[in-house]
Design goal:
The protein is built from 7 helices and no strands. With 196 residues, it is mostly helical.
C-alpha cells in the first residue's frame, strides 16, 4: 500500500512539474505569436488551441473506454502500433491524466489568455480604449464563442471517444510507433504487452 501511495505521489508531482513547464511554454509561444500577428491570424491561433484541447480530451476518454483484447493478436503479429495501444490502454489512468488534465486544461487556460489578446487587438483596431463598452462587449462575445466551441467540441469528442475508442487508440498508437521507429524518440516508457 505504501509503495502505491509513493508511486501516486511521484506521478502527481511529475504531472505538476510537466504542467508547469508546458503551461509556461504554451503561454510564451502563444503570446509571442499573437502579439506579432493581426487579429484574424490570432483568432485562428485561438481556435487551434481550442481544437488541440478538444482532441486531447477525446484521446484521454478513448484510452479509458478502449478494449485491449483486439490488440493482442496484432501485437503477436508485430503490427505497428499494437504494442503501444496495449500500453496506452493498460496505463489509461496516466494517459488520460496527461491528455485531459495536462494538455486539455492548459489549452483551456491558454485559449482564455489568447482570447484576451485578440479582443484587445480588435478593440485597438476600432480605436476603442481600455475598458470601453465596445471592448467589454467584444470580450464577452469572443469568450462566449470560445467557451461554446470548447464545450460543444468536447461533447462531440466524448461521443466519438466512447463509440470509436479502439479505432482512435489504434490510430494514436500507430502515430506513436511511427515516431518512435522513424525518429528514434521514445514517447512511451514501455511498449511491453506482458501482463501486469
Amino acid at each position: 500500500m505504501n509503495s502505491q501511495i509513493k508511486r501516486s505521489i511521484k506521478f502527481s508531482l511529475t504531472i505538476a512539474v510537466i504542467t508547469f513547464v508546458l503551461a509556461a511554454v504554451f503561454s510564451v509561444i502563444s503570446s509571442s505569436i499573437l502579439n506579432q500577428v493581426m487579429w484574424l491570424i490570432g483568432t485562428i491561433v485561438v481556435f487551434f488551441i481550442v481544437l488541440l484541447g478538444v482532441i486531447f480530451d477525446m484521446l484521454g476518454i478513448a484510452s479509458t473506454a478502449a478494449d485491449e483484447k483486439p490488440f493482442h493478436a496484432m501485437a503477436a503479429e508485430k503490427v505497428p502500433g499494437a504494442k503501444q495501444a496495449v500500453y496506452i490502454i493498460r496505463n489509461a489512468d496516466k494517459f488520460a491524466s496527461f491528455c485531459n488534465d495536462v494538455i486539455g486544461d492548459i489549452s483551456g487556460i491558454v485559449s482564455g489568455t489568447a482570447s484576451a489578446i485578440v479582443v484587445l487587438q480588435i478593440a485597438n483596431l476600432m480605436g476603442q480604449g481600455d475598458g470601453s463598452s465596445t471592448q467589454i462587449t467584444l470580450g464577452v462575445i469572443f469568450t462566449s464563442l470560445v467557451a461554446a466551441l470548447t464545450v460543444g467540441g468536447k461533447a462531440v469528442g466524448k461521443f466519438l471517444a466512447i463509440n470509436s475508442s479502439t479505432q482512435i487508440i489504434f490510430f494514436v498508437a500507430k502515430v506513436i510507433a511511427f515516431i518512435e521507429t522513424k525518429f528514434k524518440i521514445k514517447l512511451l516508457p514501455s511498449s511491453d504487452t506482458k501482463n501486469k
